[in-house]
Backbone:
């Protein structure tokens, strides 16, 4: 039986508080989030179509709290 292990994640700047890791997304008019990641809020804004009721939102995946 073979087992594999995943190495622990490392960051170059040391520990990062996960509560400060904010994601940008696009909320569709029907209340669902678009199923893709955006590199920045500007990228999400370029993707969103406000004329169709879409809005750019920011959220934290760890605590799922709105910002």
Residues:
């Amino acid at each position: 039986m073979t087992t594999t292990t995943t190495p622990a994640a490392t960051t170059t700047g040391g520990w990062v508080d996960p509560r400060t890791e904010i994601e940008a997304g696009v909320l569709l008019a029907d209340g669902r989030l678009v199923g893709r990641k955006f590199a920045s809020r500007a990228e999400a804004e370029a993707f969103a179509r406000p004329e169709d009721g879409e809005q750019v939102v920011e959220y934290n995946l760890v605590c799922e709290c709105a910002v």
Q: What stands out?
A: The chain has one helix and two strands.
